[in-house]
Amino acid sequence: MSDAPHVGAARPMLVSAGSRAAWRVIDRAGDYLELAKFRLSLLVLVVAAAGYGLGASGPIDLWGLLQTLGGIGLVAFAANALNQVLEREYDAVMRRTRNRPIPAGRVTASEALIFAGLCGAGGILWLDGAANTLAAALAGLTLLTYVWIYTPAKRRTGLNTLIGAVPGALPPVIGYAASSGTVTVEAGLLFAIVYCWQMPHFYSIAWMYRDDYARGGYRMLSVVDPGGDRISRQSVVFMGLLLFATLLPAVFADWPVIYLCGAGSLGFWLGVFVVRFAAERSRENARAVLLASIAYLPALVGLLLLTRGA
Q: With 70 as the cut, is the pLDDT of residue 52 above it?
């Protein structure tokens, strides 16, 4: 018999080594997607797409929309990564965040900074080239306010959710500016809708994890008002403002009656969960608000786009 090694015998080792390398790449990519808060960024892209569609004067330019979403997505990734760099010490002591890539040691703070810098610069330049300078400037403003105003405010004031809702409501305005080249009353209405929506959405999260936020030293409203009276009142008030804001397009932009009926029904549906939470501030009711609010926003956006120009 030949003394040459049997090629087939080595193949399982090669396959195994290749599989391990592939899994390492997949795990690494997963860490960066977690750093970018990919799932949260998808909601950002949903409302940005709505802004782009509503700002278009004619048929929606799908290629332009995709490029705009690419730029906005990168800026959102940058904001989320920078937020985790700045809060890495506090994330390490909170149960819900201690396994994030930086506190868990899977990504270093330096690597996260490089990632955020590339995403932020790339996203703004992409928007400037593919859309216009106004959209790029609004994206830069969103990044700055989220990282340098909202992030430190979380440890200083119970009003931080009201502050953070400003950059959180800018993505649809960026999308609107990208397709229209301007910002109008219609874009302002989109801003108001997303701003108000964030209150019951994020207050429910703050209530569910209030002990964890307290452990991390965050002055969320649920921490500074442990009884929950203020968080309940504000959730109901902003739910009412949200319902009002969703009906305003029919006044300023002559939206059809079918939109009014749909928006009113969606608002009533979400409002039931918010009022129930305000009446009984349990974790289960807070979670119900969270899940309902996540379903509500894409449904409202779809309704806006479907009835656009009807």
A: yes
| Amino acid (one-letter) located at 256 | P
Q: What's the predicted TM-score (pTM) here?
A: 0.90
With b for 16 or more beta-carbon neighbours within 10 A and e for fewer, the 265-292 pattern comes to ebbeebbebbbbbbeebeeebbbbbbeb
Question: Which tokens is 298 given?
Answer: 């894409």
The answer for residues whose C-beta is within 8 angstroms of residue 236's C-beta and 6 or more apart is 274, 275, 278
d(Cα 35, Cα 18) in Å, to the nearest integer?
26
- Residue 82 in contact with residue 116, Cβ under 8 Å? yes
Six token digits for residue 292: 């309902």
DSSP 59: S
pLDDT digits over 299-308, tens only?
999 999 888 8
